[in-house]
Structures are given as structure tokens and as C-alpha cells.
């Protein structure tokens, strides 16, 4: 199987920060009963042919006929084992994307799954399902908020069958609440055209975009001084997420609401489930201690009231990813203003993803 077209499409979408960041998103191509899908945690921006794993489409689709345990841990463990069993790759050290099953359910040759801030401005907004149908009609299928993994696959499997029965055609566009978009086509050009049509429809409604330009010199000095003070107080490396929009979100706890809960799984993986909101630098160490005792993890994002947004992590790479995803969250929140207002993930689903082995694995892949 020649994977060059898939690699080219993956690199093109993956290198555009408006569409996907870090190890998010995934792509696939089918050849007979074999599907090549992105390995978990691999970055689309620089993925090569070795970054895809060969899988049996028949075995993956066959999982829809199985009964799995009701418990989250038991179900996902059994499902993961079956997905791994569906690999036909010569290299069995490769682990497929958590959404490999969903890719296999599309009959089309190519599948693209990305998390564009513009599209997530819709999927992460109040009344998103109704708004999506208003803007896109029956060209898309709306998938309400649900657990990822097997549950997502089964819900999509049933919804896709119902769509085909009602519309007399195969679905090519899925919009997933608080997640992103799937687009399927028999050619890359078809995927490009479908994706562009969704962007165009949503862009026509957008009233404002997040201002991610750098602040002025005076503000930058204030941010750097605050970062230095926080680093000393918290005993860790803290850096400012120096964009103008951050100041607006940090103005007050009320203004910060859209950033206090995650919008998508990627935000949980790379910038943390919840940020630490501080009223002042003084006492920050005690606030951090309480946060960690209550949540069981160290915050990657810090919102300092009246000052700005900061990131905290041990490595430069982790800090950069936290910056990228927190900026993405700002973009999503601002876009959501045009679609009825921001709607973050539920605490229940956030907790599920925090303890989901599949996302834990992905977070460790570079």
C-alpha cells in the first residue's frame, strides 16, 4: 500500500495550528480489508509512513457485534485488547489511535479527524446540535457528548446506520460534541472540499476572533515579573502565556469561567483538566497544595487575577504544549460566543478521561 497521499494529507492538516495541536487528531486510509491508521500519540505534522499501523477492518467492525462489561475499566480494557488483536502490522509494538474503530466504520477510503478551534467553537457551545443542523443541514451527523473508546464507536455505528436508512446515503461528516470533526472521502480532494464547506458555513457566523497577538512591552514586563514571583513562590518553572486575550480571561473569576473547565480531551491531556485560579501571588504555594490534594495532580495552567495566564511544568516541551492548548481553549471560548456561549465538558466525563488508560498512554508519547 502506498501511504504517500495519506502522509501528505496528514502533514498538511497536522502542521496547521488552526486544525490540530501536539499529538491530537488522526487519519487513516483503507486498502481492501486493511486500514492504516495513525499510531497513538504520533504528531500528524511530521508523521511518516512508519507512523501508521496496519489493521484488519473486518475484525474492527466485528467488535460492534460483541458484548462488553458495563464497568468503565473492565469494558475499556477488554475493548483495548480486541483492538490490539485487530492489528495486522509486522510491527506489533505499534499502538493504534484510540479512534481506530471509528475510522473503520466509514466505508470511504480516507478519513480525517482533527480538532479545529473554529469548529470546536460550535461543538463546545450551548445548543450546538441544533445550531449545527441549522448551519449544515443533513450534510453532517451530530454526535452528543459521550465517553470515548468503545462507547463512542457504538454510538456512531448506530447513528451512522440510522442516517443511511433515513437519507439513503453514507455519512461523510461527523461533528462530535466537545471533541472535533471527522470527514471521510474516497479522495483527499473530496475531504478537502467537505472540510472547507464546514469551515465556510461556520466562519460566516463568527462575530469575533481571539486576539493572540503579543502584549505591549509594559504588559510583557508585568507578566515576566509575575512569572518570576510565581516561580519563586511555587518552587517550579512558571512562564507567562503572553497573548492579549489572556488578560481578558484573567480579569476576574467570572471572566475566567470559560477556561476553568476543559473543552476537549486534548485540553485535558496537554494543558490539564482544571487550572489553578489565584487572586494574588502571596499564598500561592498553599493554594497549590490544596489544589493537588483535592485533584490528585499538579496544575499546568495558572490564572492570576488581574494579570494573566501562566503555565507550569517541569520540561520546556510540556510548557510549550500547555501554552498551545490553553491558547486553543481561548480561541474555542471566543468562537463559542458566536454560537450561543461556551459549554465545557462535564465533570463526570473529565474524570473519566483523567483516569482513562488510553489517554494516559497518549500523554506520555512525546
Task: Give structural notes.
The structure is a single chain. This protein has 366 residues and is an alpha+beta fold. The protein is 46% helix and 13% strand. α5 crosses α14 and α12 packs antiparallel against α14. The relative contact order is 0.14.
Using brief descriptors, characterize the structure shown.
366 residues; alpha+beta; seven-stranded mixed sheet; 16 helices
Chain-wise SSE layout:
Blueprint: H1 4-14, E1 26-31, E2 34-38, E3 52-56, H2 57-62, H3 72-85, H4 100-105, E4 110-114, H5 117-123, H6 128-136, E5 141-143, H7 150-167, E6 173-176, E7 180-185, H8 188-203, H9 217-234, E8 238-240, H10 244-249, H11 253-256, H12 265-271, E9 276-278, H13 284-295, E10 301-304, E11 308-312, H14 316-336, H15 347-354, H16 357-363
Parallel strand pairs: 5-6, 9-10
Antiparallel strand pairs: 1-2, 1-4, 2-3, 4-7, 6-7, 8-11, 10-11
Which consecutive residue ranges, at least 5 long each, have pLDDT under 50? Answer: none
Shape, per Cα inertia axes:
globular
| Helix fraction by DSSP (H/I, runs of at least 4) | 40-55%
Structural class: alpha+beta
Output the helix-strand order: HEEEHHHEHHEHEEHHEHHHEHEEHHH
CA(first)-CA(last) distance: 28 Å
Describe the main β-sheet briefly.
Answer: 7 strands, mixed
Residue-averaged pLDDT, rounded?
95
What's the total count of β strands?
11
Kindly provide the radius of gyration, computed on alpha-carbon positions and rounded to a whole number of angstroms. 21 Å
* Widest sheet, order of strands: 3-2-1-4-7-6-5
Report strand %: 5-15%
The total of helices stands at 16
Amino acid at each position: 500500500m502506498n501511504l504517500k497521499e495519506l502522509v501528505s494529507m496528514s502533514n498538511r492538516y497536522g502542521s496547521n495550528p488552526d486544525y490540530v495541536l501536539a499529538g491530537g487528531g488522526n487519519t487513516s486510509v483503507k486498502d481492501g480489508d486493511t486500514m492504516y491508521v495513525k499510531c497513538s500519540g504520533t504528531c500528524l505534522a511530521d508523521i511518516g509512513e512508519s507512523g501508521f499501523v496496519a489493521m484488519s477492518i473486518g475484525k474492527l467492525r466485528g467488535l460492534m457485534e460483541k458484548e462488553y462489561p458495563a464497568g468503565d475499566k473492565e469494558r475499556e480494557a477488554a475493548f483495548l485488547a480486541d483492538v490490539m488483536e485487530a492489528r495486522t502490522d509486522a510491527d506489533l509494538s505499534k499502538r493504534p489511535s484510540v479512534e481506530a474503530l471509528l475510522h473503520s466504520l466509514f466505508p470511504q477510503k480516507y478519513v480525517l479527524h482533527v480538532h479545529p478551534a473554529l469548529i470546536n467553537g460550535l461543538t463546545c457551545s450551548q445548543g450546538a446540535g441544533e445550531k449545527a443542523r441549522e448551519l449544515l443541514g443533513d450534510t453532517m451527523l451530530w454526535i452528543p457528548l459521550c465517553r470515548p473508546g468503545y462507547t463512542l464507536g457504538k454510538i456512531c455505528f448506530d447513528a451512522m446506520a440510522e442516517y443511511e436508512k433515513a437519507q439513503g446515503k453514507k455519512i461523510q461528516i461527523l461533528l462530535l460534541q466537545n471533541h472535533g470533526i471527522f470527514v471521510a472521502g474516497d479522495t483527499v480532494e473530496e475531504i478537502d472540499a467537505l472540510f472547507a464547506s464546514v469551515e465556510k458555513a461556520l466562519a460566516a457566523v463568527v462575530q469575533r476572533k481571539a486576539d493572540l497577538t503579543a502584549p505591549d512591552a509594559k504588559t510583557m514586563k508585568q507578566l515576566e515579573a509575575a512569572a518570576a514571583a510565581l516561580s519563586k513562590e511555587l518552587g517550579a518553572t512558571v512562564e507567562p502565556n503572553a497573548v492579549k486575550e489572556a488578560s481578558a480571561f484573567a480579569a476576574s473569576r467570572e471572566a475566567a469561567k470559560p477556561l476553568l473547565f476543559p473543552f476537549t480531551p486534548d485540553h485535558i491531556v496537554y494543558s490539564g483538566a482544571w487550572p489553578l485560579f489565584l487572586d494574588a501571588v502571596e499564598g500561592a504555594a498553599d493554594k497549590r497544595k490544596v489544589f493537588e490534594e483535592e485533584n490528585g495532580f499538579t496544575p499546568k495552567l495558572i490564572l492570576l487575577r488581574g494579570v494573566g495566564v501562566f503555565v507550569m511544568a517541569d520540561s520546556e516541551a510540556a510548557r510549550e504544549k500547555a501554552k498551545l492548548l490553553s491558547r486553543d481553549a481561548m480561541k474555542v471560548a471566543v468562537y463559542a460566543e458566536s454560537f450561543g456561549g461556551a459549554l465545557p465538558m462535564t465533570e463526570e466525563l473529565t474524570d473519566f478521561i483523567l483516569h482513562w488508560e488510553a489517554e494516559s498512554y497518549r500523554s506520555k508519547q512525546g
